[in-house]
Amino acid sequence: MVLSSLDKMIQLQKNTANIRNICVLAHVDHGKTTLADCLISSNGIISSRLAGKLRYMDSREDEQIRGITMKSSAISLHYTKDNEEYLINLIDSPGHVDFSSEVSTAVRICDGCIIVVDAVEGVCPQTQAVLRQAWLENIRPVLVINKLDRLIVELKFTPQEAYSQLKNILEQINALTGTLFTSKVLEERAERETESQVNLSSEQGEQLYDWRTGLEDTDDSHLYFSPDQGNVVFTSAIDGWGFGIEHFAKIYSQKIGIKKEVLLKTLWGDYYINMKAKKIMKVDQAKGKKPLFVQLILENIWSLYDAVLKKDREKIEKIITSLGLKIGAREARHSDPKVQINAICSQWLPISQAVLAMVCQKLPSPLDITAERVEKLMCTGSQTFDSLPPETQALKAAFMRCGSEDTAPVIIFVSKMFAVDAKGLPQNKPRPLTQEEIMQRRERARQRHAEKLAMAQSQGPLEPTQDGSTLEANPEGEEPRGDGQQVETVTPKPVTEEGSQQESFVAFARVFSGVARKGKKIFVLGPKYSPLEFLERVPLGFSTPPDALPPVPHLAYCTLENLYLLMGRELENLEEVPPGNVLGIGGLQDFVLKSATLCSLPSCPPFIPLSFEATPIVRVAVEPKHPSEMPQLVKGMKLLNQADPCVQILIQETGEHVLVTAGEVHLQRCLDDLKERFAKIQISVSEPIIPFRETITKPPKVDMVNEEIGRQQKVAVIHQTKEDQSKLPEGIQVDADGLITMTTPNKLATLSVRAMPLPEEVTQILEDNSDLIRSMEQLTSSLNEGRNAQVIPQKTQEKIQEFKGKLEQHLTGRKWRNIVDQIWSFGPRKCGPNILVIRSEDFQHPVWPGPVNKASREASKYRDLSNSIVSGFQLATLSGPMCEEPLMGVCFVLEKWDLAKFEEQGASEKQDEQNDLVKEGQRDFARYSGGEGQELHDGSFEPFEKRTAQKGEASLSDCYGPFSGQLIATMKEACRYALQVKPQRLMAAMYTCDIMATGDVLGRVYAVLSKREGRVLQEEMKEGTDMFIIKAVLPVAESFGFADEIRKRTSGLASPQLVFSHWEVIPSDPFWVPTTEEEYLHFGEKADSENQARKYMNAVRKRKGLYVEEKIVEHAEKQRTLSKNK
Ligand SMILES: Nc1nc2c(ncn2[C@@H]2O[C@H](COP(=O)(O)OP(=O)(O)OP(=O)(O)O)[C@@H](O)[C@H]2O)c(=O)[nH]1
Ligand SMILES: [Mg+2]
What we know:
- This protein is 36% helix and 19% strand.
- It is of the alpha+beta class and 1126 residues long.
- Strands 16-15-21-10-13-20-17-18 form an eight-stranded antiparallel sheet.
């Protein structure tokens, strides 16, 4: 970048009203980076000839090789329109699903976005996803329909056909906007309704609500994309042209003498012009009139392409002169028509003009941030803005003002950290000396020279040298030359960190308020920080220096060491950054892991977490090739974790280092980064670890050959029968209905547990609400501990009620009666998709937060033992009996629990202890208090541990260990056996996959899909093209290499996008063995070829080092027929 323009940028950064922070979003390969190239070339950063070929924003080597963007990166551009100067901070984002987290990080720090759509492919799955993300973040979109040249050159459409295609795309994308809008309005409406109902309930009177009113009242016309609104531009980024209809309205209003305003309204749409009458009329299909858009715009472009492609020199000349353009001789004579088209069109309809003008006109500046967006950013989880402390609420004004005065609080959001080579940082780069520095150096040299002279003189006269000069050039070679033309460079100070650390992290951030100054000290608020906690701990108007503050969780204090202007591949040093700008911050790597909020006031809440669309699902274990390099690997993985918004790094109980990524491409990039940048060692990578879930189903009605079960006779005993598999150890009773009864080893307590499959919808509801369940769990535990301070916010209460209602709605029937009220826990990890239910009339302690019924003595008894029972349940759901994978969709019912013996013992011991003093007790043993709930003055129960602590250890633990431990183990085992007596099934993770393919390769796509157990859900033809869109589901387990295989089989014509969608039960029974005659006939004795589930199960067991029951062929001889052998 030319240095002189840095000053320009600094100047532009101060005019907040003329800043536009925008990102380019689209489906993969729709031309975002190419478009960005065109915009960058308008600033002279790259030459216009290279625009579209260079893909400047794809600065990584692998991005260039693969031709896809993997990281979002920003660049600042300068644009002048109507004497107004604008600063455009442009962020290019990746379109591949695997990197959708990069889109989230970009969207957060922008105010607007350009949605790019390929004119041939139209609206694709990722287009929908990015549009939704823009909506969720409340940023305004404009539309660029790109690759119009493909309609001319590839599809050979007539202008009329092209017009219909464009209309179609607009309809599709507007339909999408419509759905997003409606759901949002209805949601807000519902919120308002509940609020007013709350208000109303106190008053008398009834009011009827009509849900439609919300939709009808709200004006949504400005939301839709339409060329006459000025928010749509048509482009061909590769050929360097683009236009909005305003451009043509201006030209034609002069040419035909129709008012520009009228043309603006009619150039797009079904209007035609009656040239004689100079009137614009509605299109009459019957007369075959062409719409204005076709006649005045598209036909001109088409005829230009036609002339150039046919190399019609005369016509080209004519067009050029009529447009008043000057084409260089080199381009005019170039044999490649593309070059000619580019040369002509980029002058005639410069793409950057069209796009940037639209951006400046239609997208908001940082000053226009809406109150709605600010409130949303500030309210994490189930908080409402009103419930925030007043100091925090006051910050909203600062956001809205976006002021740069010294009193304005500095608020910065860091959306991701990215790694750069430390050598590439501006402060470490050799740079040319400024004029002043040259002067200074010269001055110093002169002084030294004078000193030496003086010294020499004092020591005595010097022998004059031959050439008459008295001194040689000074040894440091700093003798200035007379001409001063020499370019000297400053070599940077050595990088402060030890030489080994060559990666330096820069925060990708945006200033929302105040001026970020180099060297300023600022608070770093982690995602879990709560301003309330700070205000509680630190007195109002704290005067201590922030360094000396008492420690507050998730709060740190740091210095803004370096500020950078992000210029694509380059960074430029800045001294300060005014509000509303995108910037890079150096020196935060020890404070910020992935994202954070920085603020000069601790009353600021952390921004809501970024919403990620992709779930990390592909996991591999990595290890260094040379075991001694483990420390490098660990360090490298830490760095990788910081540098990527969505990768997860786990260390499993087995000691494996596991990398969890969003997909294959993401995995590859992470591994490359690890090998080449962060760890710099050779690593070996395991096969992908595929996650499974375990569940149970209803007993099947038919067997494997579709015969009704129970009809046929089971075949003889020679073969292993199914019953053997689930043979239960002694001492465990099981009834016909699968109720398991187990006693603790010390025979004091007996538990009866039954497992039931949950309906699919219920599992889904549980999955969707896991966050809510987690916060419910926190609420209940704080209520149990007697901390009533936390009042449940209204919104959370409503959400809980809604969740409960949904469960009740789906859990109907005799089997499930009252079950929702009796839910005791969710698992695993207290928030998973399995439930524990207790069947007891006087059970008073469900998961639902609410006041504990203090009158019930029973309640306390259950509560005291509940921890052990619940822990047992948690353990059982965390790893199932089939292959130790987590359970899903299982309901465990604790039908009975008999503690009579235990109570007896407890009571007798209690007698003995009457006079004992309070001992220092261990807290972790038996959690039983003998059913006594002692009420304290404040009405809450005394914490249980205090009471149990009064008993000696010996009294409750016996030779089998502490009672609580026994209870946990017994509960866990009981749950496992309860599962094993039911038909068990594996659940596989499924991808949805969208494949776009032409008709001729369709067959091959299907072949690959079916080979990999994929299932086609839908196939439709894209209107006006010969493209088919196939929607299919595919097990994650079968997906490795899928994208490559499809690409190879279709010679690159089809490329699938895989996104994790759901868990699906594999219908086959992993333990199935043929038991009936028909089954033997059909499958043979081994019958293992058919069993996909068993294959998966055994693979997982093998990986985990568990016992695998396999039939191994011991004597591999040919089968002999007895008769022949005789
Ligand atoms: N015919 C035609 N091809 C284009 C146009 N714009 C981009 N392309 C081509 O489309 C391909 C993808 O372009 P990119 O700019 O890399 O697409 P992208 O949206 O940045 O892709 P990702 O970043 O991977 O999501 C390249 O081969 C471009 O040359 C266009 O206007 N017309
Ligand atoms: Mg790109």
